[in-house]
Amino acid sequence: VLLVGPTEFITNNIINAVGLTTQNFLQMSLFTDPLGDGAFTRNWTVFYWLWWISYTPGVAMFVTRVSRGRKIKEVIWGLLLGSTAGCWFFFGVMESYAMHQFVNGVINVPQVMQTLGGETAVQQVLMSLPAGKLFLAAYLFVMIVFLASHMDAVAYTMAATSTRNLREGDDPDRGMRLFWCVVITLIPLSILFTGASLETMKTTVVLTALPFLAILLIKTGGFVRWLKQD
């Protein structure tokens, strides 16, 4: 997208966005919308905080597994810098291209999102690229690969934590991993097939993350004490 799209506009917009984010990071992080109804803070800031908290158990064990032999500071810096740079690049390129198409009257992205949904907006933006069908197919392929990788990591984590007397360095049974993979697949499918709205899914994420938040605070305290003792 960066190469075949409006490269100059995308690059300039990313640089400008990084500057604005750096300049206003503290203010945006602590924004609570005190004069409004707080809907933006609830639907975006708080929701995505809880969204990522719900990922912590699976991601933590997966990262620990694949980072064996590395120093703790190397893992921390790798996650912080790598994740931040990856998110900035992905969202910067895609959002800048969508903004370019909107400003030039090619696609009214906000209207499409409000009337047809975000997934249709993504489809139309990708289809507006040269060889749009090829980009759309590549996008779907990448989504499938990342989804499969994430499900494998979560299933591995669930299988490891539910296996008794699992020795350090050993892998959980494949049957147990397959069982948890089926379980975590059926949960979102059941929500979709019942015709539940997106708000129901958001509520599910929030309810899942709240217990993890308490556990995360306890584990963080224990981790700090362990570092001091080691």
UniProtKB/TrEMBL annotation:
Subcellular localization(s) per the UniProt record: Cell membrane
Q: Which residues cross the membrane?
A: 46-63, 75-94, 134-157, 178-198, 204-227
In what way does this protein cross or attach to the membrane? Multi-pass membrane protein
A molecular function annotated in GO for this UniProt entry is: transmembrane transporter activity
- InterPro entries assigned: BCCT_CS, BCCT_transptr
Primary localization class, coarse: membrane
**Which residue spans adopt a coiled-coil conformation according to this UniProt entry?**
none
A UniProt-annotated Pfam family: BCCT
Q: What keywords does the record list, in alphabetical order? A: Cell membrane, Membrane, Transmembrane, Transmembrane helix, Transport
Task: Give the UniProt entry's GO cellular component terms.
Answer: plasma membrane
Q: What PANTHER family does this protein's entry cite?
A: BCCT-FAMILY TRANSPORTER, HIGH-AFFINITY CHOLINE TRANSPORT PROTEIN-RELATED
Protein name, UniProt field: BCCT family transporter
Q: Which organism is it from?
A: Klebsiella variicola
